[in-house]
Design a protein that fits this description.
Layout lengths: L5 E7 L6 H13 L4 E7 L2 H8 L7 H9 L6 E4 L8 H6 L3 E4 L7 H10 L5 E4 L11 H13 L3
Parallel strand pairs: 1-2, 1-4, 2-3, 4-5
């Protein structure tokens, strides 16, 4: 008798890949257990602009290709267009949704909204990883700009 696959989903911009992203993906998959399947949703450019009030450095199709190239990722897709952020969860029906420490979304709201849509899921927020300088794309951008501006 084979063990049931646990579908684990995580979502994000993944603009400048860094160690925080790698830790997020590894821990997300680990949370699903030995038979986990990791599904990663990469935010579309339009949604990044709307949510973060800035254009991503890399276009969504390139960010998707970078995520797909990671060995730990089983499946990766672009998020849906439009403002219904939970439509993608409804579409792929994961067992567990893993959120990063800095994602601006409430776990209970996701659970309640998905329940209204007839989908029962678990939602877990992971903790921040390591050095503050290397777990945020925006912090990395600022650090690079500072070093570049101080370069003689």
């Amino acid at each position: 008798m084979s063990e049931t696959t646990v579908r684990v989903m995580t979502l994000g911009t993944f603009d400048i890949l860094h160690l925080g992203h790698v830790k997020l993906l590894k821990n997300a998959k680990k949370f699903g257990g030995d038979n986990a399947k990791l599904i990663v949703i990469v935010a579309r450019d339009e949604n990044v602009i709307r949510e973060k009030n800035r254009k991503p450095i890399f276009p969504d199709n390139e960010r998707l290709e970078m995520i797909k190239a990671l060995k730990i990722v089983d499946e990766a897709y672009l998020g849906n267009e439009g403002t219904d952020k939970l439509k993608i969860i409804e579409e792929y029906k994961p067992d567990i949704v893993i959120l990063g420490y800095d994602q601006r979304v409430d776990e209970k709201n996701i659970i309640n909204e998905m329940k209204k849509r007839g989908i029962l899921i678990k939602v877990k927020r992971l903790e921040k990883y390591g050095n503050d300088s290397f777990n945020s794309s925006s912090k990395i951008i600022k650090m690079v700009l500072e070093k570049y501006n101080n370069f003689d």
